[in-house]
Amino acid sequence: MRLHVGCAMWTHTPWQGRFLPHPLPPRERLRAYATWCNAVEGNTTFYATPARSAVESWARQTSPDFRFVVKLPRPITHERRLSGADDELRSFLAAMEPLGPRAHTLWIQLPGSFGPADLGSLAAFLRRLPATHLYAVEVRHRAFFEDPRSEGLLERVLDGAGAEWIPFDTTTLFQSPPTSDAERDAWTKKPRVPRRSRALTGRPVVRYLGRDDTGRTVEGWRHWVGTVAGWLREGRSPTVFVHTPDNAEAPALARRFHDEVRARVPELEPLPEPLPAEPPTLF
User: Fold this and answer.
1) Which residues pair with 46 in a beta bridge?
2) Element (H or E) spanning 189, and its range?
3) Cβ(224)–Cβ(240) under 8 Å?
4) Which of 182, 219, 265, 274 has a CA-to-CA distance to 249 between 20 and 30 Å?
5) How confident is the model over 133-144, as pLDDT tens digits?
6) In whole angstroms, what separates CA 275 from the centre of its chain?
7) What are phi and psi of 156, to 5 degrees?
8) pTM of the predicted protein model
9) What backbone phi and psi angles, to 5 degrees, belong to 234?
10) Would you report the helix, strand and coil content of the chain in percent, each value rounded to 5?
11) Can you tell me the distance from the alpha carbon of 45 to that of 205, in angstroms, rounded to the nearest whole number?
């Protein structure tokens, strides 16, 4: 029984010297991060398909049970809106091949304008995808959260393809006005949709966004601690990504989330001890 937890990236300036050794060559940072967390969001692939050599480096730095949840590139999801992007899709899938089992889920994040009327395009796209991967879809159109008929139609499309629905839970962020520059920036950019916590498959993926205040982040994830513990007891294998607006404490928070779930499910395998950020001293 394993719970995978991670962050939105594997390197971040505030982590250097605290969570990750510093200085550290770029091609070693993922290896160090992987001692803290056993999963990571692949957000950079949204902006450009990486070179195969870069993906080979990611594979070398992680064990086969490490999980990447990699986002399909913007031309496929946002510019072409899932239609007529076969060449881009083939290039992306070829680039991801070196990850092997580490490419746990391919993440199809759709724009807020992609609504119920577009479900035919999503269904057709999912049917064309190779069965060699797991797929998960993140939607942001409010109809999917507020209109039961639209929600049911989307679930039917996903069920037909064995795909998961990724919730991006921003409810904690929007509970009260922002108190930092990072929170104010997040208020202008992050989707404001109701929380959804029903898994469709045996491998649910959750994205949780808290606050820059650790206490408020922890209080806001109580719902997810119980939900994830329940999924584990059901035999599911979840992956949870912990975000905050500044992400300064994200690796430690991800591990804390894992610890809180393990307190409810003692048979859950613990995370390994992380690599020290600084070398040991003699005194």
Assistant:
1) none
2) helix 181-189
3) yes
4) 265
5) 999 999 999 999
6) 22
7) -65, -40
8) 0.95
9) -80, -5
10) 45, 15, 40
11) 18
